Amino acid sequence: ILLPLVTALICICLGRMNVPVGDVITVFRDVFTGNEGHAQNYSIVINLRLPRILMAIIVGAGLTCAGNTFQSLFSNPLATPDILGVTSGTCVGAILAIILSCGILETQLIALAFGLASVFFTLKIAGKNENRQVVYLVLSGVIAFSLFNAIGSLLKYTADPQDKLPEITYWLMGSFTSATYKKLLIGSPLILIGIVVIYLLRWRLNILSLSEDEAKASGINLKRTQMIFILASTVITASAVSMCGQVGWIGLLVPHCARMLVGSNNRYVVPISLSLGASFMILIDTLSRTISVIELPLSILTAIIGSPVFISLLNKNRSNLQ
Fold it and tell me: Which whole-number Å values give the CA distances from 95 to 29, 98, 129, 169, in the listed order?
């Protein structure tokens, strides 16, 4: 609980114009007491940086929680939050909204709707076969990913190369630049509901990671429990991508770091993942807006930082096995 809060307090002070910690605390105190404080500090902290910090916390925690859920559910350490094609569906909605010159909020709503539609499309395909349900879900996700990627590429091909195409490309790379309290009100509730559902049922992930016969012997409704986790994780992913675009690596890397700290028991991995994911996303966003004059997209930084970290984790695990 403390790690994201401390990270947020430090990072909210950093930027093109640094604000001392004492001044940040004064701004928050003035907000709660209703006093009129320093106008410039208030604008920087409350209007500019706080929405980004809150979005980073929610998106980071949500994508990490979804990634850990899919890795446990499919018993695949390489599973990511977009394994069922939800990210490609969300991106199609956003591309279509940008081409139609919709506003930021309309773009978010359309992207979220297409993301949820891609989930139901995947479940519809997988639901035709009652046996080996998880395997067919993964295969259906590959189909949905390829189909919506093709549609997205077609839409980008028809977009205006002088105006719309650069906007689409920048959105797809991920950014918190457009973070506002209104965007948070649209996307955050679904992410928080999904996180709460997974957190409350996290002990069942330990059962689902067993073989099918062992899981059935535990007495839980296997298919219903799987569907609950899949729906919660995909709703989280669709909402996160609709708010800030594609953010890679965090749903793959952070769950591995959490398991290195506390083992494979999801009763502990899930809360640790939430904390690490939120803190990591705050740091990435702070780097994106401070490391250069031009703000860097999130997916670039997560790949640059995530790749060497993941390589070191693989080397460490390999040396432990030898």
Answer: 41, 5, 33, 9
Helices 104-126, 133-158: crossing angle, 10 deg rounding: 140
Backbone angles phi, psi at 215, to 5 degrees: -65, -40
Q: What distance, in Å, lies between the first and last C-alpha atoms of the chain?
A: 36
Residue 181 contacts residue 51 (beta carbons within 8 Å)? yes
CA distance readout (Å), 209 to 79, 100, 201, 236, 241: 13, 44, 13, 21, 27
- Using DSSP, state whether 292 is helix, strand or coil: coil
Whether 181 and 243 have beta carbons less than 8 Å apart is answered as no
Calpha distance 320→231 (Å, rounded): 36
146-176 pLDDT, tens digit per residue, is: 999 999 999 999 998 888 999 898 888 888 9
Which of the pair, 277 or 112, is modelled with greater confidence?
277
The DSSP result for 123-190, as a single string, is HHHHTT--SSHHHHHHHHHHHHHHHHHHHHHHHHHHS-TTTHHHHHHHHHT---TT--HHHHHHHHHH
Confirm whether pTM is higher than 0.85: yes
Work out the burial of residue 315: count CB atoms within 10 Å of its CB; fewer than 13 is exposed, 13-18 middle, 19 or more buried: exposed
- Is 40 or 55 the better-scoring residue by pLDDT? 55
